[in-house]
Structures are given as C-alpha cells and as structure tokens.
Amino acid sequence: MHIRRDVALSRLSPAENISSKTANNSEIVSEEIKNNNVITEPSSASSDAKALADKKATAGEATKILIDVPFTSQAPFGKWDAYHEEACEEASLVMLDYFLQNKKLTPVVAEKEIQALIAYEIKFAKGYEDSTVAQTATLGENYYGLKNLRVVYDFTAEDLKKYLSQGKPIIVPAAGRRLGNPNFTAPGPLYHNLVLIGYDGDTIITNDPGTRKGQGYRYNIKTLYGAIYDFPGDAKKIETGRKAMIVVE
Fold first, then answer.
1. Region 42-248: CATH code
2. What is the pLDDT of residues 198-222, one digit of tens each?
3. Which whole-number Å values give the CA distances from 190 to 55, 90, 151, 199, in the listed order?
4. CA-CA 20 to 30 A from 235: which of 41, 134, 141, 228?
5. Integer CA distances (angstroms), 80 to 75, 102, 136, 212, in order
6. What does the domain layout of the chain look like in residue ranges?
C-alpha cells in the first residue's frame, strides 16, 4: 500500500466536524495534558535516550530508564464514542510516530491523527476495531512509513526492561481488565494497547492511552507482564493470546 496521510475525515460521518470542534476546544484542552521488520534513522530524541541508557548500562546503573515519548489519550477531548473506545492501537501508533519524528503532540493534532488513521483503516483495511500486534505494526508501516518496527513473541518480563534500557519504546497488547488501572471506566476494556516508555526498578512506566491520566502511568512489572496477550480474534478469549510486543529498532 502507499502511505496515505490525507484520507478525508468526512469518511467518518459521526466525526465529520471534528476539525472545527477540536480547533474551538484547543485552548481548553491544551491545558491538560520474527514478523515485520523495520530500519529508519532514529530521531534525536531516540538517539539521546539510547545514549543515556547505554551509558547507564555500561556503568551498571540502569535501575531507572525514562524515554521521552509524547502522550495522548485515545480520546484527546474526552469523547468516548464508538471510534475512540476502539482507538488504543491508533493512539499508541501516534505516540510512537511523534516520538520518532521528535515532534510535539497536542490534543488537536492527536485527534486529527487518530481520526485519519481510523478513516484509513476503514478504506484500506478490514476495519478499525481490535487488531493484532502484527496488524498494528503493518498499519504503522503502511500509513506512517515506519520501517523500524519488529513484532516479538514469547518473551520474558526481563526482556521488556532489556529493550527499554536501549531507549526503545514498546507497544504491548493487554487484557485490559487484568491491568487493574483504577482510572479505567469499570470494569475496564477486554482488550487494550499501551506504550511502555521506561522502568524504575520493577515498575514499568507507560503512556497508557486508556485514560487522560495515562501519561507516565506506572504498573508493577509482574502485573503488566501477566496482562500481556495478543488479540486472538475474540476479545472475550483474550487470555488465550500469545505474549507479543512491537519494538522499535
């Protein structure tokens, strides 16, 4: 597929006026805040993070790593309609792309990106609902041109820290209700995606798009690892999925 970043938002009739609505609300919201392969030049942000991680790892001090990945909720303006309820994969890709571009991500920009991604999926893919990590990685390559994504399966909890210590953000799929995030609307999503941006000892630091309070949200590594499952085709059977993640190389 060709990269398409100009899909008309009018394809989504419930959100056809989203640009004007988000523009009008921008001042308010700005106050809140081994399957597919890839290689592009790293952004300055990823290079700096990797250099810091390598330095700490060499010195035996890599007990805490934090990668500066911009955050967005999957519902940047708090509108949890049918589209935004399903937009965790799209929001995670947006965060990853803007990290690699070393660009600022505002609620207005994030909303437009999420809407355009959904429109692209409706036109060129099978739909915008639950996706496997392989499908999400393919979307990142086809839409954003990300050639440096790799899907990794059947890894250990320590592998999460290994990749993060190299300054590499990770997208993971999860059984949302096993995460135990009190900011989710109860009982929480059956299937969810989020971005891992660092760790502090045995605490994994994330950008969790499932809540407006998700920037830098922390999960115990055992809790997070125990919740990681790829989409098996039915959200009700999420705990039958494999351990899977998307890493940046």
1. 3.90.70.10
2. 999 999 999 999 999 999 999 999 9
3. 39, 17, 21, 25
4. 141
5. 6, 28, 21, 11
6. 42-248
